[in-house]
Design brief:
With 104 residues, the chain is mostly helical. 80% of the residues lie in helices and 0% in strands. The longest helix is centred in the last third of the chain and has 30 residues.
Length: 104
């Protein structure tokens, strides 16, 4: 228990920064108009490609017997890929709503 408290005390500045980023992110996202939601979501999905690249790098630099890093890297690649593909599919579907419908 003291090890955890020492780690928290050593990284207290980082914890404050993360908490402030959470509150700032909630405020920024909450004030985005719905018209801008689709382009922002598309951009966020493109940024998630960085997660996939980072996971591949982690898996490539991990020792062969470090199963935790390999499993977490593999899960990050799978979940990041699902997030990117699913996000672009949803974005494409949302953009279809704005296209003119052809007369039958």
């Amino acid at each position: 228990m003291t090890h955890i408290l020492d780690a928290i005390a050593a990284h207290q500045d980082y914890i404050y920064i993360v908490v402030l980023m959470i509150f700032l992110g909630i405020e920024v996202i909450g004030r985005v108009p719905s018209v801008l939601h689709t382009p922002l979501m598309s951009g966020a999905n493109a940024i998630h490609g960085v997660v996939i690249i980072g996971a591949i790098i982690v898996m490539g630099k991990a020792e062969p017997d470090n199963y935790v890093a390999l499993v977490l890297g593999f899960l990050a690649v799978i979940l990041g890929t699902l997030n990117v593909v699913g996000g672009f599919a949803v974005t494409d579907r949302m953009l279809e709503m704005f296209k003119n419908k052809k007369a039958k």
